[in-house]
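Researcher: Structure for this, please.
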Amino acid sequence: MSPFNLFTIGYSGFAIEDFIAVLKKNSIGALVDIRSSPYSKYFKDYDITNLKFILNEKKIYYLFFGNELGARPEDHSLYTNGVADFSKMANSKYFKNGCERVREGLNKFSICLMCAEKDPATCHRAILVTNNFRNIYPEINIFHIYSPSKIESQEQLDRRIMTINKLDQGDLLKSEIERQKDAYLSQEKKIAYTIES
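Model: Predicted structure, token format:
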């Protein structure tokens, strides 16, 4: 088993004190913010300036990777018919560079990727980022934090996403890996950012 663990978390549903406590409980040394826009309309503790200050006080590094790993790329070539295309994004130099920097950081401390959504099944942090990160760095264990008492492994999330999309049953025509890929594509269609016309 790999000694390297990558975590993810969505701040929705967490008071800032509980958010910090769960990071500490899981020995997180750095929080990587992968929101395209690092601001919150309703939860000002999660605005970039405030969050960076709070984490710094708690001896947790804050890094902003929204340009590399965010859900709303500025590069319009990464969209198809006005919808963010996760396949194009995952193959972009920005995304690969972001993943490489996260992997290098894991040599120093445990890292947690942060976005807003509580459930990783409805967030690009899992559907785009960790789903592709594990293909580049299969030696890394990935865990998704829901609450102080609930953590889901990437493998458990895979099964849940397959169940959500009714692809968890055996199929004579498709392997489990193919059905898992189809399940992630279905989730992508549900959550991918669309440019407003």
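Researcher: Any notable elements?
Model: The mean pLDDT is 94. Helices lie at 16-25, 48-57, 66-69, 86-90, 93-105, 124-136, 154-164, 176-191.
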